[in-house]
């Protein structure tokens, strides 16, 4: 605590008052601007090592890396349910499209797009080659630039709700 009686002496007051003002202005200063050498742009790299097969026809990358000044956004599993009623079609393609649309909706609420997605996990009920073909086609429609996120597809016997055929979660990177 500051003893203000100390400042009543006129001789000391002349010297201390400017120091007190400097102290107050120095303590109240806030700096929100990044340092000039900080990176302000996100750099997402998609890596598919030459020693491994090319995964792009199957709509994924072996790895993705994000760097820059930003935050990770973790997106819960999005089902193929449509609308506020969460209507589940019996058609796998319809649910795959809806799951990707739902993912895009969640991304948009954080100011993101599919270009910001680093990793997805796909759960498919009773997975087979036909469902893989459909999923791959729908991924190519959404990720048109062939820069796909890292991906894991997990065949499952059942999901949280009866009639759910697919669920997709994601990890994205949001630039600050």
Search tags:
176 residues; alpha+beta; 4-stranded mixed β-sheet; two-stranded antiparallel ribbon
Description:
This protein is an alpha+beta fold and 176 residues long. It has helices at 10-28, 92-109, 129-142; strands at residues 43-47, 63-67, 70-79, 117-125, 150-156, 166-175. Helix 2 runs parallel beside helix 3 (129-142). The radius of gyration is 27 Å and the shape is globular.
List the helices and strands and how they pair.
Layout: H1 10-28, E1 43-47, E2 63-67, E3 70-79, H2 92-109, E4 117-125, H3 129-142, E5 150-156, E6 166-175
Parallel strand pairs: 4-5
Antiparallel strand pairs: 1-2, 3-6, 4-6
Helix pairs in contact: 2-3
Kindly state the number of beta strands. 6
What about the largest sheet? 4 strands, mixed
Poorly predicted tracts of residues: 17-41
| Radius of gyration based on Cα positions | 27 Å
Structural class, by secondary structure, is alpha+beta
- Number of alpha- plus pi-helical segments: 3
- Overall shape: globular
Task: Classify the beta-strand content into a percent band.
Answer: 25-35%
**Please, what is the average pLDDT?**
82
Estimate the helix proportion, in percent: 25-40%
Order of helices and strands: HEEEHEHEE
Strand order, sheet with most strands:
3-6-4-5
Measure the end-to-end span: 39 Å
């Amino acid at each position: 605590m500051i003893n203000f009686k100390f400042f009543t002496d006129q001789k000391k007051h002349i010297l201390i008052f400017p120091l007190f003002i400097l102290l107050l202005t120095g303590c109240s200063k806030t700096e929100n601007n990044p340092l000039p050498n900080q990176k302000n742009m996100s750099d997402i790299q998609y890596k598919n090592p030459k020693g491994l097969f090319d995964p792009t026809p199957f709509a994924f990358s072996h790895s993705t890396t994000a760097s820059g000044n930003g935050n990770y956004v973790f997106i819960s599993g999005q089902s193929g349910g449509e609308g506020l009623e969460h209507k589940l079609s019996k058609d796998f393609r319809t649910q795959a499209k809806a799951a990707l649309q739902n993912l895009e909706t969640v991304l948009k609420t954080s100011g993101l797009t599919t270009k910001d997605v680093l990793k997805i996990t796909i759960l498919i009920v009773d997975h087979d080659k036909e469902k893989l073909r459909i999923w791959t086609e729908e991924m190519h429609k959404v990720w048109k630039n062939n820069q796909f996120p890292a991906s894991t597809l997990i065949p499952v016997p059942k999901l949280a709700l009866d009639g759910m055929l697919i669920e997709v979660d994601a990890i994205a990177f949001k630039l600050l």
